[in-house]
Design a protein that fits this description.
30% of the residues lie in helices and 21% in strands. By secondary structure, the chain is an alpha+beta fold. The strands form 6 sheets. A 5-stranded antiparallel β-sheet has the order 1-2-3-4-5. It is elongated. The two termini are 44 Å apart.
Length: 614
């Protein structure tokens, strides 16, 4: 973990109250530490400060200039430094190693079980903190977390024993006073060194302190899955029988989920959503997934293990993870070129069985539905309908005469066309007439023009060649009926308005209805505007809850059926709420499943996509 130089972002001196809290945290984290040891580690009068590390959530506590504790992820999960291990050697349970193993630990290797000198390591769980002691000395030289669990303390000499997080001579220990020990001089060709170095997992020297890869959990899962990869990569590629362990069942369900259900377009996805909506349905038929009965205990630990699970020659694990904040982890990528991924053969899952049953028995919904907006003309505008007798109307629930959006526009334009409201008025012109010329005494010019009509002056009008002025075709002239009943006197008769404006004014006068046409032939007509289905999520008592409203307005689905299906689909609790009249109007799904619920309702109950508003 501490390979590169540590870049400090800020340094703050702890107050008295903060020191007290830190002592309490040390007492809880390290039960073996005595009260006087804790007081000497965090004294009252000496300066104790905390460092925040750049580009990381790590905290390092200093006594003067000596690092005493560090918290990899700022979550009160603290570890002692080499200085503290030297000062309080029994602060943690220990694992004794053979001298040849020390060289590999100093190179950044995890501790392998063949290198443990203890015959009985004691009862331990994965993630328990242990220090490493060199055989023949009492000085701990490293600290880490257990990568194995044992109820009896008896172990097999195979695999990883401890994920080493910090050891002396790394950059953290070099921050303070240099601590040194006498290291036995053992040559590389020593048989003992060769024997105990077999299978040692060397960590890349380029490892750095990052926000997502320096937590204790990450280190534990890295070492654990390396052993899984070495021993079980062949068997994990095949369909698991019912008698396999929970770890292998999780692996098979995980591979089935990322192979058949997790598409790239659904990334990134929260790990709990992935587990509930994909892993659980992808488990083999007749099995149940219980993460707590596995060696991983937590979903995050298991997925971090999958992150580093590689096949032969693979540079990357199965997935990539990003932890945006403590506990909020996303799967951001699936490495489909991974050897384990490519060799996996899908099995018959619970989801496959459910799909087969769904094909045999259709859901209790009404099949695919279509929603149409329809309108009723008010009595004051019924005269417009008389202009077009070919328009077909829809019968309302109370014998209302209803029309679709297309029919409404056709009715209006037919009225306009029949009444010539789209034709402009010709302006009246005054032309000279022959009768008027005989009643007056003509002048000499007039007399000469009469004698020679072929030589008419250019100023003389020629009515036969006069063209009517052109008007825009997109305007409509308002007649007396439209002015009185559509515009209510706000627009005077003869005013020309744009077609789109008169159509909008016409629609505003209509009464809205909507028609639901189902695949089975049933047609429902309901009054009012279409009530969009609302799907939203919010935190209630620090827990996410997804709410679905207005579902009953569009789909005649039994709410008890929907809540049961959602409960099984997302492996969570569901409930309903009732309005004042005692009718169920909202479904609550415990969890953040807005997108998933919308997709499920479209797939299962054929709810139109355009009916959602989230």
């Amino acid at each position: 973990m501490f390979k590169k130089p540590i870049k400090v972002k800020t340094q703050n001196i702890l107050k008295g109250s903060e020191r007290k809290k830190l002592r309490e945290l040390v007492a809880r984290s390290f039960p073996n530490a005595k009260e006087e040891d804790i007081l000497s580690l965090i004294p009252t009068k000496e300066e104790v400060s905390v460092l925040k590390i750049a580009q990381s959530r790590m905290l390092i506590y200093l006594l003067g200039k000596e690092p005493i504790l560090f918290d990899p992820n700022d979550d009160n999960d603290i570890y002692p430094t080499a200085f503290t291990l030297h000062k309080i050697p029994n602060i943690l349970p220990t694992l004794t190693i053979f001298p040849p193993v020390l060289h590999y630990i100093l190179k950044g290797a995890n501790l392998m079980l063949p290198g443990v000198a203890d015959d009985n390591i004691g009862v331990c769980q994965i993630g328990d903190k242990r220090s490493v002691v060199l055989m023949g000395t009492s000085f701990p030289i490293a600290v880490g977390t257990m990568a194995i669990a044992s109820r009896t303390g008896i172990i097999e000499r195979k695999g990883i024993a401890l994920s080493v997080i910090h050891h002396f001579r790394d950059t953290l220990s070099e921050m303070g006073t240099r601590i040194d020990i006498t290291i036995p001089d053992i040559s590389e060709d020593d048989k003992l060194a060769t024997e105990f170095s077999e299978g040692v997992d060397i960590i890349d020297s380029e490892s750095t302190i990052t926000a997502t890869e320096t937590t204790t959990t990450t280190t534990t899962t890295t070492t654990e899955t390396t052993d899984i990869n070495n021993n079980n990569s062949e068997s994990s590629s095949s369909t698991p029988p019912g008698d396999k362990s929970m770890d292998e069942l999780l692996l098979a369900s995980f591979l089935q989920a990322i192979r058949t259900k997790l598409k790239d377009k659904k990334l990134p996805i929260l790990i709990n959503v992935f587990y509930a909506t994909m892993m659980i349905p992808c488990r083999p038929v007749g099995t149940e997934l219980e993460i707590k009965k596995s060696s991983y205990k937590k979903l995050s630990v298991f997925l971090y293990a999958m992150k580093v699970l590689v096949g032969e020659g693979d540079p990357l694990g199965l997935i990539s993870l990003v932890e945006e904040s403590p506990g909020v982890i996303y799967i951001t990528a699936v490495h489909r070129g991974n050897e384990i991924y490519r060799r996996f053969q899908p099995h018959i899952s619970v989801q496959d069985e459910e799909d087969r049953e769904a094909e045999k028995t259709k859901p209790k919904g009404d099949g695919k539905i279509k929603i149409k907006e329809i309108f009723e003309l008010p009595p004051s505008l019924h005269r417009i309908i008389e202009s077009d007798s070919n328009i077909q109307c829809i019968q309302g629930p109370k014998k209302e005469v209803l029309f679709t959006t297309t029919d409404i526009a056709e009715i209006l334009w037919t009225y306009v066309r029949i009444n010539s409201l789209d034709q402009p008025l010709l302006e009246e012109k005054s032309f000279p007439s022959l009768s008027s010329s005989t009643t007056t005494t003509p002048s000499k010019q007039q007399t000469s023009s009469k004698r020679a009509p072929s030589k008419a002056t250019p100023s003389e009008p020629t009515p036969s060649k006069e063209q009517p002025p052109s008007k825009p075709a997109s305007t409509v002239r308002v007649d007396s009926f439209l002015a009185a009943n559509l515009y209510k006197g706000k627009v005077s008769e003869g005013t020309e308005v744009q077609k789109q404006d008169i159509l909008m004014a016409f629609k505003e006068k209509l009464r809205p209805f909507y028609q639901i046409v189902r695949e089975n032939g049933d047609v429902d007509v309901k009054k009012g505007k279409v009530q969009m289905i609302q799907i939203s999520s919010a935190k209630v008592s620090n827990k996410w809850v997804t709410s679905i409203t207005n579902l009953a307005g569009l789909c005649s689905i039994d709410f008890s059926v929907v809540t049961r299906d959602l409960q099984h689909k997302f492996a969570c609790s569901t409930s309903t709420t009732k309005d004042v009249s005692g009718v169920c109007d909202k479904i609550l799904v415990h969890g953040n499943f807005v997108k998933e619920v919308a997709e499920y309702l479209v797939e299962k109950y054929h709810v139109p996509k355009r009916s959602y508003s989230s």
